[in-house]
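Our preliminary data section would be incomplete without showing what the modeling component actually yields. Below, a chain of 105 amino acids is followed by its predicted structure, encoded as tokens that our downstream tools consume directly.
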Amino acid sequence: MRLFSRLAACVLCCAPALAAAELAPEFWDRPRSASAMLAQDAVRHAVAEYHARPAARLVIIHGGGQEAQLQAAELRAWLVALAIDGTRLFLRADPAARSLRIVIE
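Predicted structure:
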């Protein structure tokens, strides 16, 4: 049984990143709260997947502009407030990104 658990852990650790979950740009036009964050499918799915995979890392991919960087930093802060370990949460700039995406690696 232990061998199976170790093999399963290796498979999960080596699994490719899941498809990115995207936050709609309109989301940032309204005031935000923890319940508003969790109402977003992208956030809810990322948090659930993060908790289901102990070795998972979350990567927030954002555009290169200042507004996109601020939105990514705010999303990161909300995720930490929602019990995501900040040491497993990363920001990555992608100049071609038009919206924020959350990738589970």
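Helices lie at 2-14, 34-38, 41-52, 66-81. Strands lie at 21-23, 58-62, 89-93, 100-104. Preliminary results of this kind motivate Aim 1 of the renewal.
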